[in-house]
Specification:
about 400 residues, alpha+beta, eight-stranded mixed sheet, 12 strands, binds flavin-adenine dinucleotide
Length: about 400
């Protein structure tokens, strides 16, 4: 099937497929069982040039597109979800944000860390600020040439293993005047127990994706040079929207991990229904299963096309995927993937329920992608808001933000 990929992209995809099958797949079950971050896989990905692919050549990267990254992520996700997530976060997300809005020094710092295999951590979510990220209370107080950061974040992917941290905080000037929300870069060095004031206090006990730690972080008078503030051109006041816009690449990446898990599960299912016989014939001869296979394939194809389209798109005046396309693609891919993996597991009967096969691991792993990176409900709200021309979600008093009329009156 011609999906408009160049010979170079097909070669990259083939190289990623070989890596995933030979290096990632044999480790996937042990990574899940041990719940240890796979440093051996990080090294192998780094040596193979699958980290920092989207970093421009001037900073030591390959200047590859988001679509190139998507091709690699899908292949990894078919075999090992944690490996795929490392590829997402070393090519999209925080690194994209720094490359878009950082100073030259910040870009060099982030590029060098990522190209050496670091998976940056994005620190937005707080105990009382989840979907409503603008409710965050972590604060950055200006003190001369530094900022003092105080607050608490949870569900931070890479907490305890990441070096580069992109921390979102509410900024206050020296007079205590609030300026808006901005990002701050901190580099953690576990060996030296630095920087002082940044502590990883807890690891979440997750359902799946167990080789990737989700950490709770506390900042206590974390002192960062003012030069570590990541301020988009629109400044502190409107900067949060710009910083979140960079998240659209991460959304495409997360949707691709979900789609890749589903593709991997479906491949296993197709092989199995040809092999397993009941009632004197391969179970794939039963129309009940054939229709399941067709539905799974159809959803997979649609998800893949939406993700490719989003990866290829650019938002207005932006270097990132179009927000509408990215939201729709992540939403559709993550919800479809849960159904596809569930059905693939069903094809195996009791064997699908066994921990000896990867289906149960895939079912646990894939469940996350309608939650992290914008829940399915919040993404629907984003899509509907754009359709209506309103800034949603609705606020507590029943008015859409920035609207003078109650929504109920519409
Ligand atoms: P809540 O906001 O409390 O939502 C609870 C429920 O209410 C959800 O179903 C939600 O969809 C629904 N809801 C909320 N508001 C609305 C609304 N207006 N309309 C309709 N429904 C609504 N965060 C980071 O900052 N960095 C990370 O690296 C990171 N990694 C993560 C990794 C994993 C594995 C997971 C599970 C989460 C991660 N998160 C991370 C946090 C993630 O972004 C949040 O979980 C997510 O934003 C939802 O917030 P919440 O969990 O507090 O849910």
């Amino acid at each position: 099937m011609d999906l408009g990929l160049s010979p170079e992209q097909l070669a990259l995809q083939a190289r990623a497929r070989a890596f995933a099958r030979e290096v990632a797949r044999p480790r996937a079950a042990a990574i899940d069982a041990s719940e240890q971050y796979p440093w051996d896989i990080v090294k192998a990905l780094t040596d193979a040039g699958f980290v920092g692919m989207t970093i421009p050549p001037a900073l030591g990267g390959q200047g590859r597109s988001f679509l190139d990254a998507v091709l690699v992520i899908e292949e990894m996700a078919k075999c090992c979800t944690v490996t795929a997530r490392i590829v997402v976060e070393t090519n999209m997300g925080a690194i994209s944000t720094v490359l878009a809005y950082g100073t030259e020094e910040q870009k060099k710092l982030a590029a060098a860390l990522v190209l050496a295999g670091d998976k940056p951590a994005i620190c937005i979510t707080e105990p009382d600020a989840g979907s409503d990220a603008t409710a965050l209370t972590t604060r950055a107080d200006k003190r001369g040439d530094t900022y003092l950061i105080n607050g608490r974040k949870h569900w931070i992917t890479g907490g305890g293993v990441s070096r580069l941290h992109l921390i979102f905080a509410r900024v206050f000037d020296e007079k205590g005047q609030e300026l808006g929300i901005s990002g701050f870069l901190a580099v953690r060095d576990e060996g030296r127990n630095e920087p002082k004031g940044l502590r990883v206090v807890r690891r979440e006990q997750t359902m799946g994706l167990r080789g990737m730690p989700e950490g709770e972080l506390v900042f206590e008078n974390l002192e960062l040079p003012a030069a570590m503030a990541l301020v988009p051109p629109s400044g502190f006041r409107r900067g949060f929207a710009d910083l979140m816009n960079a998240y659209n690449s991460q959304r495409v990446g997360a949707g691709t991990v979900a789609m890749g898990i589903a593709a991997g599960a479906l491949e296993l299912g197709v092989d199995w229904v040809k092999e397993r016989a009941q009632f004197g014939r391969p179970i794939g001869e039963f129309q009940g299963l054939q229709w399941m296979l067709a539905d799974m394939q159809m959803q997979l194809t649609a998800a893949r096309l939406m993700l490719y389209q989003a990866a290829r798109s650019r938002g207005k005046d932006s270097a990132f995927p179009d927000p509408m396309l990215a939201a729709q693609a992540k939403l559709f891919a993550s919800e479809s993937a849960i159904r596809i993996v569930n059905d693939a597991l069903q094809l195996f009967g009791a064997r699908g329920y066994s921990r000896e096969l990867p289906l149960e691991r895939m079912a646990r792993d894939v469940r996350m992608f309608t939650i992290g990176g914008g829940t399915a409900q919040v993404l629907r709200t984003l899509v509907a808001g754009r359709m209506l021309g309103w800034k949603l979600p609705q606020t507590r008093d029943g008015y859409a933000q920035d609207q003078a009329r109650p929504l109920a009156a519409e």
